[in-house]
Structure formats: C-alpha cells, structure tokens
Amino acid sequence: MSNRILEVNHLTTSFRIGDAYYPAVDDVSLTVNKNEVLAIVGESGCGKSALAFSIMGLHRQAKIEGEIKYNGQNLVGISPVQLNKLRGKSMGMIFQDPLTALNPLMIIGQQIDEVLFLHNPSMSAAKRKERVLSLLDQVGILYPERTYDQFPHELSGGMRQRIIIAIAIANNPSLLIADEPTTALDATIQSQILGLVNELKEKMDAGIVLITHDLGVVAEIADRVAVMYAGQIVEIADVFTLFENPLHPYTKSLLNSIPANVQPKSELHVIQGVVPALQNLPRTGCRFSARIPWIDASKHAENPTLEEVEPEHFVRCTCYQDFYLPGEREDGQYGVS
Amino acid sequence: MWKFIVRRILIMIPQLILLSILIFFLAGLMPGDALSGQIDPSLDFETIEKKREELGFNDPWYQQYGRWISGVVQGDFGISFRHKVQVTELLSERMTNTLWLSLLSLVITYLIAIPLGVISGRYNDRIADQLITGYTYIGFATPLFIFALLMVWFFGFYLDWFPTGGSVKPGLTPGTFSYFMSKIHHMLLPAISMALIATVGTVQYLRSEIIDTKQKDFILTARAKGASESRVYNRHIFRNALLPIAAFFGYEMAALIGGSIFVETIFSYPGMGQLFLDSINLRDYSVVTATVLIFGLATILGSLISDIVLSLVDPRIRIK
Amino acid sequence: MAYLEVNDLKVHFPIKGGIFGRTVDHVKAVDGVTMRIEKGKTYGLVGESGSGKSTTGRAIMGLNKITAGNIIFDGKDVTNERGTREDFRKDVQMIFQDPYSSLNPRKRVYEILAEPLRNFEKLSKSEEKKRIYELLEIVGLSPESIYKYPHQFSGGQRQRIGIARAVALQPKLIIADEPVSALDVSVQAQVLNFMQQIQEEYGLTYIFIGHDLGVIRHVCDRIGIMYKGRFVEEGNTDEIFNNPQHIYTKRLVSAIPDIDPRNRGKQINFRAQVQKEYEESFSDYFDEDGLVYPLRKISDTHLVALPGRGE
Q1: Which residues contact C101 (CB under 8 A, 6 or more apart)?
Q2: What residues of A are in contact with residue B223 (Cβ under 8 Å)?
Q3: ipTM of the complex
C-alpha cells in the first residue's frame, strides 16, 4: 500500500447553476500508484478536467465531497496554506494550452524560479538559477541560458509546453496531473512530449494522472485507463484489457469512432446525440442509455454501479452484456466479441 | 526602440501641419474679428477698414496662414490684441499653471483609481465592489462643470477651506516654501474635483482588466505552483492588469489638460483653459489659435507617450 | 487533365521594418507549390503548424494574394479572377476549422444559409425556403434549426451548419481547412462520415487540410506533405504511409500514435531510429537554409524532395 500515491474515494464535485448544485464529477473513486500512468478518457463535458482540477484544488467555487487522499492525507477541506505546501512541491500540474498557461510578462527563468522559491525558502538565488538551468536542460530545451531570459511569446508551442513541464517537475513531485498535455501540439511534438513524460515518470517514480480525449495517446503511454461519461467512471481496467476487451458500450463506441481502428474510407461509428449538459444529466439509470437507443431499456440496470467483472476490470451498468454496435449484429444473434 | 520613437515623431509632423491649418481656418470662421469688439462709435467705417488692411486681415488666407505659421515655427505666436503682450509671454505662465494642475489631478486620479479598481476587481460582485461601481456610475453621469461648481460652493464658499480664485496668494515671494504651499493650496480643490470625475473611467477599466486576468490560464499555473492568494494577486494578476492602465497614461494626461478648460474657468484659476475661453469671447485670435494648437500638441504628445510606455512595459510589443 | 491544377504557387508576405515601414523582407509562406487534383478525389494537404498548408488553401480560394504561379480550375486559368469570376466563387467553397468563429453569431441559421443563395441565385422566397430545408436535411439538422443562432448548437452541429453553407450552391470543389481538429472523436466521426457521403452523392472534390495523420489517412486519396512553404513529398496515400522516402515524412509517420498498446516498445524503438536517422542525415535532405529541395519523381505517382543528383 505504500506504493499508493493517490486515492480518490467517492469524490463528487458540484457546480452551482442558478439555485442548485449539479455534480460534474459524480461519486468517482480511483487510485494511482507510483510509477504508473492512469489515463482518464472521455468526450469534452464528461467531467475529466473537473476531476483533475478537484485533485489540484483549483476549483474555487465548487462544492467538493468525498476524499482525495494524497499519500494518505485527505486534501478535501484542508486549509489553503496546507494545500499550497503540497501544490507545486508534491503535486505538479501540466496544462492543456501552452500558449496561455505562462505569464506573458515574466521571463521563463522567473516563472520556473518562482516554484522553487516558494517551496525552498532556504535555497539561494544562485542555487535556484542553477536548478532552473538544469531543469530546462532536462525537459529538452537546447539553450537553457538563452531561454532563461526569454519571454513566453518568443518560444514555440512545443517549447512552452516543455517549460510548463519544467515548472511541474521542478520540486520532484510524486504526483503529476496532466490535463490534455498534447492536444494543442503537432504530432511530432506530441510524441516527443509523451516520451518526455514517460521518461520523467520512471526517473521520479511519480504517479501520473493523464486527462485526454485521444485514445492514441492512451495506447501510447497509459498503464491503466478510466473511461468517464457524464461525470461517472463507466469502465476502468489496465490498458491492454481495455483495448483488447472493452466492455462498456461507451468505450466500444469511442474505440470504433476513431479512423485508426477501421479501413480507410469506410464509415466510422458515430455516437448518437451529445453529452448532456450538466443540468440535464439523468440522475438515475444508465446515463449512456440515451445514446444507444437501439438497446432495449430492460437491459440497463436500475441503479448501475461499478462492478468488478474480472480481476481489476470494472464496468458500470449491465447493458454491456447485451450491447452491439449498429450493423454489427446479425438478426437474432446477440453479443459481441 | 529609437527607430520606433523616431517613426512616431515623424508621423507627428503631418498631423501637426493638418492641425494648424484646421485651427487657422476655424479661427477665421468665428464671426467678427479682433477689431469688431473695440469699435468706437466715433470711428468711421473707412478708418476701421484701413486698420484692417494694415493688419493684413484682408489678405488671402494662405498669406495670413503663411505669416502666422512661420512665426509659430520660431516660437512666435504674435501679439495678443487684448493684453497687448507677446502671446508666448502670456502663455508661458498660464501653461505652467495648467501643467501643474493637470499633473496634480493625474496623481490624485491614480491615487483614487488604483485602490478602488483593485478592490472592485478582486472582490467583484461583493458589497465593496457594488459600492465602488455605484460611485463610477454616478461619476459617469455627473457633468464635470456642475460637479466643480458644487465643490467650489461647498468647500470654497461655504466651508471656506480652499481659495476660490487665482493660483497663489498675492504678496508671496516665488521660491519660498510658503509660496509653494500656497500654489498647492490653490490647485488642490480644482485638482480633486477633476480627479473625482476623471478617475471613474480608469476605475472601471482596471476593474474589468483584473476580472479578466483572474480567469487567465497562467493564474491557474501560479496557483498550481502553490503560490498564496496574495502572491497570485500581487505578482501575477495586478502586474498584468495594470499594463493597459499604464499605457493609458499619456491619453489620460491629454484628457486632463483638455478638461482643465471648464475647471479653470469655474475656479478662476489662471491657466490655459481660462485664457482660452476668455480669448474666444474677446476674439483674441492669436491667443485662441495658440492655445488650441497647444491643446492639440498635448493630445498628440499624450498618445506618443502612451505608445512609448506600452512598448516599454509590454515585452510582447517591445521593439528591439 | 486534372480538375484543379496549381502551378508553382507562391504566397509571400512582406515584413515591414525601419523608420518608414518599408518592406525589408518577405515571409515565404508558400514557396513554389505544384499540385494536380483529380475530380471526385480527396487531396490531403499535410504539415505542422506554420508549414503553409492553410495559406495554400486560402490562396486557391482567393483569400490570400498570390505572389506568383497560376491556378487552373476545370481547364480555365482563374489565377487573376478568383475573386470576381462568379462560377469560381460558386463552385469553390471552404469549410473552416473553427465552427465557433466562422459563423456570424448575430445571424440565425436561416440567414446564414440564405446568404450564399441570395448572392448567386435569384430564387423566390418560397424556393429559397425550400432549398434551405433541403440543406438542413442533407446535413441532418432538424427544420426548426432555422430559427436558432449558432451558439445554440453543439460544436458538431455548428460544423454541419458550416458544411451546409459550403454546399448550399452545389460547389464542385471544397477546401476543408482542419474541419475536424476542434471536435471530439465521436463528432469528428460524424463530420467525416458526412463529408464522405456527400462526396459520393455529388461527386465532390476535396482539398483536405489537416495535421492529424490518422484522419488524413482515412479520408485522402492523395497526399502532399508541406514543410516551410514547400512540398516535401507527394504521393498516393499508401505510398506516403507505407513507403515514405523523405526523412521528414518518415518522422511525421512515425509520430502517429499506435492504437495497439502492445506495439508500444516497437513504436518507441522505431521513433528513436527515425530520430537518429533524421539527425544524422539532416544535411542530405535539407539545403543550407533548412529548406527542402525541389520535388523529383521516383515513380509515376510518387514525388520526393531530394537533392538533384546529376541534374
């Protein structure tokens, strides 16, 4: 158990809309171990970023219930001072858009220096500068000395993302939260950044929560995968199981909608409808049922819970047992492989 | 950097030429001339005509303009008909008065705007913000000259805290401390009056800049670093939010110099604005054109200063 | 005879500088692009950000000034009349990346779709209405949509409005600039399916500009890879993906995430190998300015930018 770096228990994060609170993250439980990448996948609006922000304590107006245990310490309800001791030191975050995540008026050196300064008050300015330069080198910046004095707008998107990673890892955190770290980047830069994240994971022995909508990224780097839909985890398994034996209809639908999984020019699977808005989420029954109307209503559990269907493979709702994709099933035959 | 400044100054030249022609024309369009107000009923029409001819009032416009502008370029705005002295001489003292008044109002404007804007932006939609926003709405709705009249009546006449005219107590020797204090004392009320009204725009601007900056992604980055709330505000939000305010400095200055026209008249403060209004009434052409030209120059210089300040403080448009 | 021919297209943007703001240099956004596009096919224009792929598309469309080169559409030279020729403006339409910003937020769907019709076709009120309903049906939006504003739709629906607007005049060529880059995978699938479907039905020709090679591979017949305003390699889809010749193309192809997690190790090795080759042989593939050489034919359909040997 000492291996466990993060344990989230029954986390519910609700936002106020009008007079009521609506949960964007609904009763989510998960764990992350050292030297492990847990990917959280889903469409936009399914609550994956809200989950990441909850772990980092970045929601300022949300109601957070449940437990977020970092190294055994519950972060829900702790004081801002205590939280700030952990953020930037033990937990680092990588953001989605490198173009906006850096302060435009500060030189790169200062921005990395700040996180060292905040958590190592006794460290001398010279020592910090030395550390900043070595961090820049570590994240693959070719000319650390020059980059130190540059402003964000002077760097490319890929370089800026490296700077953000340098900030996140400056104090050797044991937990990294990466919110769509490569979505805004070109493919070659994406593979470089993913390579870097992987390398850092091993070097720092850190646990990583990777938020993404890109199944290719998941296949490349994740150890375990949690699929989220409408605020809930609908399936969670190790990466090989998830790609080879996906069970939940949502997971199957996602996998079939990407071009990589089908013949060129052939029709891609379309998930009907859209992720419902927060206020319109169904509170009972299978939340995905509206998007697979061809599945008989009786196949859905009344109050679906996440069940362990094989060791370490959890699925929500019984509908997976009878699920098929349109065009996949011959008349009278049930089930899919 | 110097290239940018040189270019901006070069652009100013045609702006100034256009401005001077425009001013000259508009002044000529004013009904009557310097003589029509002084006509003695005993003087016959021909004598006046002769006088006009002598003074060159009947020459074609370009000759008149040419005479005037060549003087202006050499710092000679002609002679005031009314005061019978060199316009330059008349202006120099008035200009200093107006400049100091504007600078003082500028300081007060920012002294009010920055704390109010910061509080309003940081605690938006709370009570303090609602009160401040309420004040800005009143400020927007109140005309400066009515507000200034109220101030002069209340603090000047009713409470008798401040002098209601002039720029210094007579009989004091320039250069002494009491002379300086008297100057400040005379300036304070008009400056405060002007600042209280002029500041509301800046308060609102700063408020919305702060609210805007609060939601930027790099603020999340700062929070994720473990920076305390006060550090997030001081190091990240305010710096970025104050940038456009700093850039507005030059415009603000020009606006205050323009605003001094009303305030100086109401407070009988001997500055450019008062001189300008008086000279219009007296058809004192040479003074009117000179003051308008200086107001125009101040505006153009103001925008130049703004551009330079912005390029100095914002690394994204810093010119190497 | 190709349907669209682009010959040695150049788009250079001036850089202003000095005290008088004179042009001191040019950015060669597109620097000598030649391509042939067959009717009814999809041509993929691929590159990383800043490669000039979007500028190429916009220049063909007439949204950017052309510095040099010519464009022949359906046998007619349209280089200098892309903005004025009515048939060109009608036959060539564009779909933009961002469905959020390419639709006027203050106009209802009806007006958005009616605008191109009013510009080019003199229809009566009732005919116009009929056409708009048809368009909505084609893109799968409900008839009540006409009274709504763009913000009332989801991203995928908005992109369909963008497509409906583009197909309103029954164009022959559609230039799609990153049409699915801003969309979720499931919505992306919807848009790609739909584009494919109307292509089959109406015999449309596409220029598909993108950076996601997975999508490009899925929809394109022929592909041109761009780097710094020039073509690096051009060929049929399987030539580009299965037999890339230029190190730049190899690097792009190797960066595509493999959807099978079991191939992870293999993929990492492959990338490392390509990266090594890239570093070692950089000077064989790029000239002193870091630009690629002119294209040379290595087969009837496959062209690669290799240094001229013996030429």
Answers
A1: none
A2: 58, 87
A3: 0.88
What is the percentage of chain B residues whose pLDDT exceeds 70? 92
Are A80 and B229 an interchain contact pair (Cβ–Cβ within 8 Å)? yes
Residues of C in contact with A195 (CB under 8 A): 268, 271
* Residues B32 and B97 placed together within one structural domain of the fold: no
What's the domain range around C171?
4-228
> Do C255 and C217 belong to one domain?
no
Same domain, yes or no, for C129 and C49? Answer: yes
Cβ neighbourhood burial of B25 (10 Å; 0-12, 13-18, 19+): exposed
CB within 8 Å: A101 and B227: no
Residue B45: pLDDT over 60: yes
B78 — pLDDT class (breaks 50, 70, 90)? confident
**Domain span at B60:** 20-73
Number of domains in chain C: 2
Of all residues in chain B, the one with the smallest CA distance to C21 is B7
What tokens does A319 get? 């509908």
* Residues written for chain B: 320
Mean per-residue pLDDT over chain C, rounded: 88
List chain B residues with CB under 8 Å of A111.
Answer: 221
- Shared domain for B31 and B155, answered yes or no, is no
| Rounded distance between C-alpha atoms, residue C190 and residue C192, angstroms | 6
Tell me, yes or no, whether B142 and B223 share the same domain.
yes
Cα gap A177→A207, rounded to integer Å: 9
pTM over 0.90: no
A311 touching B, CB under 8 A? no
Residue A205: count of CB within 10 angstroms of its CB: 14
Record: contact B224-A151, CB cut-off 8 A = no
Answer yes or no: do C215 and C304 share one domain.
Answer: no
Answer yes or no: do C130 and C217 share one domain: yes
Whether the CB-CB separation of B206 and B129 falls below 8 Å is answered with: no
CB contact under 8 A, A114 and B225: yes
The total number of structural domains that make up chain B: 2
* Spatial separation of the C-alpha atoms in residues B131 and B124, rounded to whole Å: 11
pLDDT digits (tens, 9 = 90+) for C225-253: 999 999 999 999 999 999 999 999 999 99
Give the torsion sign (CA, C295, C296, C298, C299).
positive
- Same domain membership, residue B185 and residue B49: no
Instruction: Point out the domain boundary residue: B11, B45, B73.
Output: B73
pLDDT tens-digit profile of A178-207? 999 988 788 888 888 898 888 889 898 999
> Has residue B15 been placed in a domain?
no
Closest CA to C2 of C94, C85, C74: C74
Give residue A329's pLDDT band: very low, low, confident or very high (50, 70, 90): low
Whether C252 sits inside 8 A of A274 (CB atoms) is no
Interval B146-155: pLDDT, tens: 898 898 889 8
Which one of C228, C263, C295 terminates a domain? C228
Residue B151: CATH number of its domain: 1.10.3720.10
**Same domain, yes or no: B47 and B155:** no
User: Domain check: are B56 and B157 in the same one?
Assistant: no
Are B110 and B253 in a shared domain? Answer: yes
Residue B292 contacts residue B276 (beta carbons within 8 Å): yes
Residue A233's nearest CA partner among A157, A177, A307, A130 is: A307
Cβ contact, residue pair A115, B229, below 8 Å: no
A44 contact residues in C (CB cutoff 8 A): 184
Note whether residue B81 is domain-resident.
no
Residues in chain B within 8 Å Cβ distance of A164: 221
Residue in chain A nearest C255 by alpha carbon:
A188
Q: Which residue of C has its CA nearest to A217?
A: C257
Q: Which residues of B touch A153 (CB under 8 A)?
A: 315-316
Tokens (6 digits) for A3: 């291996």
- B243: closest chain A residue by CA: A105
Cβ–Cβ of C49/A186 closer than 8 Å?
Answer: yes
Distances (CA, A) of A260 to A252, A267, B25: 14, 12, 74
| 35-64 in chain C: CB under 8 A from chain A | 48-49
Subunits in contact with chain C (3 or more CB pairs closer than 8 Å): A, B
Q: Count of B–C CB contacts within 8 Å?
A: 8
The mean pLDDT values, 10 residues at a time, for chain C of 311 residues are 90 79 83 93 92 92 90 88 78 84 88 89 88 85 87 82 88 92 83 90 93 92 95 95 94 91 91 92 87 90 80 43
The reported pLDDT for the residue numbered A273 is 78
Give yes or no: residues C146 and C252 share one domain.
no
